[in-house]
Amino acid sequence: MRLKCPANFRIIRLPCTGKIDVIHILRAFEKGADGVYVVGCMEGDCHFKSGNFRARKRVEQAAKILDKIGVGGERVKMYNLSSGEGPLFAQYSIEMDKKIRELGPNPVKVALQAKKNAA
Amino acid sequence: MIIASKKPIEEIIQEVKDYKRLLILGCNECVTVCEAGGKKEVEVLASALRMHFIKAGKEKKIDERTLERQCDHEYLEEIRDVIDQYDAVLSLACGVGVQFTAEKYHSTPLLPGVNTCFLGANEQRGLWTERCQACGSCVLARTGGICPISRCAKRVMNGPCGGSGRGKCEINKELDCAWQLIIDRLRDLGRLDDYEIVAPIKDWSTERAGGPRKVVREDVQV
Amino acid sequence: MSLRTLDELKASGELRTSSKLEKIFKMGHLAVTSECGPPRGSDPKAVTEKAEMIKNHVDAINTTDNQTAVTRMSSLAACIHLKQMGLEPVLQMVTRDRNRIALQSDILGAASFNINNMLCLSGDHQSFGDCKQGQNVHDLDSMQLIQTVRRMRDEGKFLGGDDIKRPPDIFVGAAANPFADPFEIRVPRLAKKIACGAEFIQTQCIYNLDKFEEWMRRVRERGLHEKVFIMAGMTPMKSAGMAKYMKNRVPGMDVPDEVIARLSGVPKEKQAQEGIDMCVEAIQRLKEVEGISGFHIMAIEWEEKVPEIVERSGLYPRPQI
Lengths: 119, 222, 321
What we know:
CATH class of chain C: Alpha Beta
Order of helices and strands of chain A: HEHEHH
CATH architecture of chain C: Alpha-Beta Barrel
Number of strands of chain C: 8
Number of helices of chain C: 12
Shape of chain A: globular
Structural class of chain A: mainly alpha
Radius of gyration of chain A: 15 Å
Largest sheet of chain C: 8 strands, parallel, barrel
Strand order of the largest sheet of chain C: 1-2-3-4-5-6-7-8
Helix content of chain C: 40-55%
Structural class of chain C: alpha/beta
Number of domains of chain C: 1
Number of helices of chain A: 4
Distance between the termini of chain C: 19 Å
Helix content of chain A: 40-55%
Largest interface: B-C, 29 and 36 residues
Shape of chain C: globular
Oligomer: heterotrimer
């Protein structure tokens, strides 16, 4: 299957989305990511029972924090799909890419670059 | 254990905004277990604050540290050599930890990052409930092991009051009536007759009413 | 109990206080009390005008103590107004707002005006009232307040152990809610209040007469009706809406569906009269219940109806003492 995906995202592989923590998402933004999305198994199909539910909660927590500090909670999103759904994976990445482009760059990154340029 | 809840990040931003060099200090004890002020919460808060202030164009140094306990001299000593590098410490310990740190580092402003709530239990993940108000004179032997002081909204020592309905408290239909629980337990223990023993007027001097309290144990002092 | 004259009663040596209410009970009459909720302001007329409406039809008048935790004129001040009209007040006192110093102090204050009756309560939680963010005290609970007054009166001692010069001369009452849960301890709870020293009881508003009679049966089984004077609490319903509100919103209230159905069954403008009729019928039924010593009629902001209820229930005229 050769599917077209945007080339500007980096995949970080996890044994299970349940491994992800709020801090991982925040660090990505601190380091300049413009968006983060977490792709887990279908709800109810987690091999570790509730990993993807935990992931969803943590994504929601991260979104709340990002809203409060003015980075924007819409920059993080949780998706669920099964391992056979390559086209859907591609579609989600396109969707996310489009959304982030609408939102523009991560304001933290912008501020850091402005500071660097001024120096 | 002591149950605390995180302060809203907006409130913390207001508290710390004027300090350039900030240490966020977690505690490995109760606040770690109740997920309000342990290492994880320190990391998340520090990251969020760094991003906020970068975005706002404010230069800040925000560091992280988590001590074994903030209510013990021994562990608080661990930051003595670095404390002068900070303009303020934001402590995520309970009110005890915040104060003890402040006492130790007299010239450094100490800010609380959590609201200390009560003495409670981890009923289930994400749910903590009150069990004790540290009255200093335990009555649990007489009340079927359920505390009317911490669990009855009116601290009624000879309850239940007239507001108990269907096992719930008059102030909130989700809240169990402590006296219903006491009676149920006394019945299960075959001791319902004990209900008619009148609880004497309580000596509250061992509680907050008696002023700040102290426990002295000469047998363990060295 | 057969009726006795005041002279016979005095000769019996059974009187413990100067309370008129105590005399009415002990002479063997069915007593009638009502209440005046003090106003949310300082105009004494709000108390005295209500009292004027009911004074000839009741033996004593309760003044509520910041009921439902809403800030009002103090119950003690309202009692003093009643006393100055030559009436017999019942001072309600809750443990929510005062510690043992203030409670004892107010008891002495009341006694200094020769207020001879008191009702000891814990009080609704402050979250129901206008000061939701306030502290509550509950240094004592209602049972311990009963003990406190009795000790002050009978032993002439403060809680701290010191002697009281001119101890209070107060007949001590308590509340009982036969409808709160758990039902099985409702009678033991009454026994506990009696053991603490309660001499009369005013119950929660009664709408579920069957359940109340079952409670009374259990009260008699333990002989408690011989140790305390039980006054049945009555509140006439003004409308089907009020009945529904009481059923769903007021803590510890038992309003059976039949009550709501009967009120709903008549046109709106006649519901108030239906409510009065139901109240009168209930009193007539309960008058026959052994162990009932009187009625406490709480016509909330509807004091003008008390005379009608008392007269139609066959409780008028009131004995003169």
